[in-house]
Amino acid sequence: MGSQKRNSRTNRVLNLLRARRGQDVPAYEVAQVGGLQYGARVHALRQRGYVIVNRDEWHSGTRVSWFRLEEPVAARYASGKFGAAAYRK
């Protein structure tokens, strides 16, 4: 697979997370736009400076995961919010 296609999948993941910024997006939705290696797309975005939080839970023996795009760290410090206060709504 060429890097252009990989980049477009990364951009699709970013667009999905941006559209739902601050909300948990189920991993299966991220996989729908990012392909089976959606974790690589999330990793690439993190390397570009995006703050993406993931959360895992177990339900009836099945692991369920979500991803959430947060404000960049610099924006949190600029607003005076950091630590636990940065995540309070």
Could you characterize what this model shows?
It contains 4 helices and 3 strands; from the N terminus they run αβααββα. It is of the alpha+beta class and 89 residues long. It has one domain: Orthogonal Bundle (Arc Repressor Mutant, subunit A), CATH 1.10.10.10. A 3-stranded antiparallel beta sheet has the order 1-3-2. A hairpin with a 2-residue loop joins strand 2 (51-59) and strand 3 (62-70). The longest helix is centred in the first third of the chain and has 17 residues, at 3-19. The termini are far apart.
Task: Describe the SSE topology.
Blueprint: H1 3-19, E1 25-26, H2 27-34, H3 38-47, E2 51-59, E3 62-70, H4 73-78
Keywords, separated by commas or semicolons:
Arc Repressor Mutant, subunit A, 22% strand, 46% helix, 3 strands, 89 residues, globular, single chain, three-stranded antiparallel β-sheet, alpha+beta
What's a concise summary of this model?
The protein has 89 residues and is α+β, with helices and mostly antiparallel strands. The protein is 46% helix and 22% strand. The relative contact order is 0.16.
The chain-level mean pLDDT equals 83
> Which second-level CATH architecture applies?
Orthogonal Bundle
The count of strands amounts to: 3
Q: Structural class, please?
A: alpha+beta
Percentage of residues assigned to helices: 40-55%
Low-pLDDT segments, ≥5 res: none
CATH superfamily: Winged helix-like DNA-binding domain superfamily/Winged helix DNA-binding domain
Radius of gyration: 14 Å
Biggest sheet, in brief?
Answer: 3 strands, antiparallel
Going across the biggest sheet, name each strand in turn. 1-3-2
CATH third-tier fold name: Arc Repressor Mutant, subunit A
Distance from N terminus to C terminus (CA atoms, Å) equals 40 Å
User: Overall 3D geometry?
Assistant: globular
Q: How many discrete domains?
A: 1
